[in-house]
Amino acid sequence: MKQFLKLNFKKVKLLVAFLIIATTASAQDFYKLSGKVYNENKQPLPNATVKLLDQKKATATDSDGNFEFQLNKGNYAIEVSYIGYETKMQLIEIINSNQKVDFYVAPSTEKLNEVLVSAVRVKPSSPVTHSNVTKEELEKRNLGQDIPVLLNYLPSVTSSSDAGAGVGYTYIRVRGSDASRINVTLNGIPYNDTESQGTFWVNLGDFTSSTQSMQLQRGVGTSTNGSGAFGASLNLLTDAISDEAYGEISSAIGSYNTYKNTIKFSTGKINDHIEIAGRFSKIDSDGYVDRAFSDLKSYFLQASYVDDNTLIKAITFGNEEKTYQAWYGLSAEELKEDRKQNPYTYDNETDNYWQDHYQLHWNETLNENWSTNLGLNYTKGKGYFEQYKEGSAVSKYNNIVEATGTDWYGTPATDLIVRRWLDNDFYVLNFNANYKNEEYEVISGISASNYKGDHFGEVIWARQFAADANIRDQYYFSDATKNEFSIYSKASFKVNKNLSALVDLQGRFVNYETDGLTSDRDALNIDKSYSFFNPKVGLTYKINNNNSIYTSFARANREPNRDDFKNGPDVQNEILNDFELGWRLKNEAVSLNTNFYYMQYKNQLIQTGGLNDVGEYLRENVDDSYRLGLEIDANIKLSSKFSISPNLTLSSNKIKNFILERDDTSVNIGTTNIAFSPDIIAGNSINYQPAKNLSINFLSKFVGEQYMSNTDTEASKLDSYFTSDLNLTYEIKPKSIFKSIVLSGLVNNVFNKEYVDRGYTYLDYWSTPGNSFEVQGYYPQATRNFLVGATFKF
Q1: pLDDT band (50, 70, 90) for residue 48
Q2: Same domain (yes/no): 87, 135
């Protein structure tokens, strides 16, 4: 027994000794490769990707730009990449010791392009809830549909269109807020219509083809130029300078006689400094709704100069649109009878508008810390919509026409055709200076704009003109001037190694003046000035390389629009306090964003559900209201070929103590739901890439039930709906002539769902629920339809 124990004890000692030697030898076979990644100003780059190409290993730099690998001795090809910077590769030889190597990456042309939106965009680690959309993502579905439709699958987003097929007049909502509350900028230049505060995407036909990237900030965001954001901010960055010359021809065809044809070109960098590029597009569609056609012609041209310290861009783009009116929708009976019918019958009941933009951008890097950015803009817009009016009271037309009968009130009336015109000019100056070092970055600047617009109407035909009247005589005229000036400063800085902060202060000053008559010949004389202070503060805490949390508070103030003043002289400006709290997780397999928000409004101008005489929603002030919600979105990599991208928004959108006025009486009906604000919005994308050149995406969207009025009236409720789209792209790389041929296909509403996503009602104002004067309208959206396209690049 003793001998056995001795023998086994010796074996144990030998085994331990062997393990120690083996472990030591094994440890000596591994060495540490570490280093740091810097930008052109010798500042560390956090979240840069560092890959070992032959090992299929990757890591991300920490907040100080550091990275580290444990490696066997040998030779390695290491690649460093960061969005907006040129990718850098280097061969590293590991011998018998630890090694340290630093990388310095230079900004790419795309990075230089991003300085145009530096004042309105946020970085990935910023305490602002946002989503980024790249050019590659946009190209997959860019077959002629408008930008709101392409953004439909982002968190908290819903979209719609008058014609039902996503071409022509289209609309977007974020967190229940409509486009008049979403601050849109193009290269940092305000795009929202100055008076209505809305965004008319019909005047940006095929603009997606000239867009490099988009960023959608939910909530107040960091909007510094243009009208205040009360639901979201969306900023678009146009095409970056191309180093190489190229040409591109793109065509698409689809349901409802939809056609899209686009030509793009670039000279590439001439003598390493100058590039000229452009695009010409034509989009036609008959629309899902009868006669709701769209005829869109657009262009985009840019000339650029770039060197190590300077970027100058001269850009012009514009659009000519003609669309048949479909904004009146259908009654419940008409919807049931034929959901594609259009109540308009006059053959030229059309909207016609021309808009041209001229931008000049000059960015100058003064030294490793300082840079400046100047943006200038001039926009010319002019157009009209034509409308046939049957039995219209002649008193509305300034004695231009004579009565040939009476209307249903017995008032002298006649039949006639009118054109109602807009003719406007919009000037913008943006300037900012940027200072940054390793610890903080400060952007300070100003934005000033001047708008001048004329509103007038003319009679182009009548059954009987007055003896002293002429065709095209004006029956109303109103001019408007709006001046805005903003001054702002925003600073992002490190509090310590893991905690960073954002402070954003803006002063905004507005003066709005009008003089003249409305289309109903009512006096509209406004002279209002507003001074707003909009502070924003936020913190981001980095728990580790994969997890961070953030919180922010922002205040926004906003003036009424032209229609608000028309609807009542006592309209008040709005105030919003926006609280956000979020958690971000990112590793090799999962990217997850979770965000709680509470948006508390004072005097919110809510949509009543009714429409004015040009199809825009009426609004009124409510004293106390809020939006409370949870947003979750993720990108989950299931395998090298499969991934899913789900998102979910759960919200409560309420008016406290809503005062309903009917029959000259006011009734407090308590807490009610805000119109057009579904409690549930969910989306998902299943992404399958069986080969490098083939991509299949199945996209789904669920929108919960919502009300068209603010009284929770059952008759104004819109049902929930669920739709799905299938998107395929396949790239061919021929050996000659073309560099690439990309084939795209899109099946919208795969399961042929008949649904309505928008409507209007006058329940709150004209009637008591249940009587014969209830009026509702509905906008049916297209059933199953398709688009296919091909892009030839050379």
Answers
A1: confident
A2: no
Inside any domain, residue 117: no
Question: In this structure, are 137 and 260 located in the same domain?
Answer: no
Non-local (6+) Cβ contacts of 539 within 8 A are: 127, 495, 499, 500, 501, 502, 550, 551, 552
> What is the Cα–Cα distance from 441 to 444, expressed in whole angstroms?
10
Residue 108: which pLDDT band, with cuts at 50, 70 and 90? Answer: low
759 in Cβ contact with 718 (< 8 Å): yes
Say if 603 falls within a structural domain: yes
Q: Please give the pLDDT value at position 53.
A: 79
Q: Is residue 555 part of a domain?
A: yes
CB neighbour list of residue 544: distance below 8 Å, 6 or more residues apart: none
Model confidence, pTM: 0.86
Domain limit, last residue, from 168, 201, 234: 234
Q: pLDDT (tens digit, 9 = 90+) per residue, 712-734?
A: 988 889 999 999 999 999 999 99
Same domain, 57 and 91: yes
How far apart CA 745 and CA 143 sit, in angstroms, is 8
Decide if 156 contacts 130 (C-beta within 8 A).
no
Over the stretch 148-193, which tens digit does the pLDDT of each residue have?
999 999 999 999 999 999 999 999 999 999 999 999 999 999 999 9
- Which H or E element spans position 8? helix 2-28
Query: Cβ of 568: how many Cβ atoms within 10 Å?
Result: 11
Same-domain status, 229 and 258: no
Q: Rounded distance, CA 454 to CA 253, Å?
A: 38
Q: What are the structure tokens assigned to 680, written together? A: 């549930």
Domain holding 81, by residue range, is: 2-107
Number of domains the chain is built from? 3
- The pLDDT value given to residue 44: 85
* CA pair distance 319, 169, nearest whole angstrom: 14
CA 321 to chain centre: 21
- 428: β partners: 377, 449
Same domain, 168 and 66: no
